[in-house]
Amino acid sequence: MFKTKNNFNEKVKNDSKSMAGLFPGGIGSIKEIAEPYIGGYSYILFTRIPKQIKGATTYSQKDAKIDFVSPQSDFFKLVERQFKELSGINDIDMETVSIQSGFTNNEHRYPGGISKNTNEITLKLNEMSGGLIRRPIQQWMTGIRDPETGLYTFPEKGFKNYTVEFLYVNCAPSVGSPSAKSRGESLEFAAYFTGLFPTRNTLSHLNYASASHDIAEFDIPFPCNMHMGDKIEEFGRQFISSQKFFEDFIQKPHEVITDTLLAKGENEAAEYFTMDNDIDEGTKKPFKSSAFESQD
Fold first, then answer.
1. Does 28 reside within a domain?
2. Domain count across the chain
3. What is the DSSP track for 20-80?
4. Domain membership of residue 132 as a residue range
5. Average of pLDDT values for 50-78?
6. Position 267 confidence tier, pLDDT thresholds 50, 70, 90
7. Cα gap 214→117, rounded to integer Å
8. What distances in angstroms separate CA 85 from CA 163, 190, 201, one per listed residue?
């Protein structure tokens, strides 16, 4: 059974007044205990990458003609941070079976089979100059099947040696809170995807048309198995509650912006944003907003 934690029940437990605020055609006091679902806040975290896939997708300065800086030097870290869309999560449907009886042949329905209906997800990604998405996907796919010979060319054979896994979390906007507790409570949904490998290496953007200067967006399908349940949701809560999540996905993007703005040589007014007084014992430290420091 896919058990999940019912946060709504936790909030209204022993609170009859809150429940009394629920009535048809109005909001009442439910606004005090729940908010509308607002989408658009999701993260993925790759948890299992076979060594040969890691090697095949590793960027090199020679191949991409660019000097990479971590974590952009890791293809999977790049995907985690810049994927624009994840689609393919479908509704769970229950089939029914029926019997007919009586003079009028009345039909009675009973539960039959059930299906998750999610066996492929699609990631939308922006291509970057140098083929930062195309090249790793090409290496990965052509190792599974060489387009010239149709053969498998990776050293280690077997499904587990060419597929990856990742955790997907869908959150409320409060996932950006500096409080680990608030981030954990922001979890709306978590799923764990296994058996992932790409089935499309996009090349169509490389065609030419006069006066056409478009960016390239890739829709890359991945066959998968989707797993859900209370244990998966607990993994999701641990992920977004962690200090590392806050640093990597919330704090560092702000620090990159402020570090760029305040960098000497690039910002002519950078000296206004340093402190060299007795409080800091004569050290110079760039201005940093406490709003982005983790608090628990």
1. no
2. 1
3. HT--TT--GGGGGT--------EEEEEEE--HHHHHHT---HHHHSS---TTTTSHHHHHH
4. 41-89+114-241
5. 69
6. low
7. 35
8. 20, 16, 17
